[in-house]
Amino acid sequence: MKAVAQSIPGMVDGIIETGRKTLSHPLLERVRQAKRFFREVPFSVSLKDKIMEGKIDLLYQEDGGWVIVDYKTDEVSGNTLNERFEAYREQGIWYARAVKKVTGGVVKKVIFFFVRAGEIRTLTDFYLT
Q1: How far apart are CA 38 and CA 56, in angstroms?
Q2: Distances 97 to 6, 34, 37, 71 between C-alpha atoms, Å
Q3: Rounded to whole angstroms, how far apart are CA atoms 30 and 34?
Q4: Could you count the other beta carbons within 10 Å of the beta carbon of residue 59?
Q5: Residue 34 in contact with residue 61, Cβ under 8 Å?
Q6: Distance between CA 70 and CA 73 in Å, rounded?
């Protein structure tokens, strides 16, 4: 098992529980109903003098456009969760730019899925050029 290989055997039960909770979340049911979905999507996008590279955890297409999901394993709740969401805002905008550039399609939203808390926060107020 990977937990043993990574020298974290005491965390196995927590990792399994987090996985189960994540897979049973209503967001993942929406993904399973999607027209298309992709996991671990690599990207590289530039804007002016910046280049951003990374991997989008989950990308799916539904009526009206693309939805980006970024899994977050932060141990947060309440106001701290909202503060962390705000800290990730720029990352979400870069992901949306990359998907728009590659697909030429509409990016509806970027969802940050805080898996340990079982909470999602959605970014829709971005301007893509």
Answers
A1: 9
A2: 34, 21, 18, 18
A3: 6
A4: 24
A5: yes
A6: 10
Q: What is the model's pTM?
A: 0.84
Nearest to 83 by CA among 109, 121, 49: 121
Structure tokens at 88: 């990730």
CA distance 84 to 120: 12
Report pLDDT digits (tens) over 84-102. 999 999 999 989 989 998 8
Q: What helix, strand, coil percent values describe the chain, rounded to 5?
A: 40, 35, 25
**Residue whose structure tokens are 């969401």:** 85
All structural domains of the chain, each given as residue ranges with its CATH number in brackets, are: 2-123 (3.90.320.10)
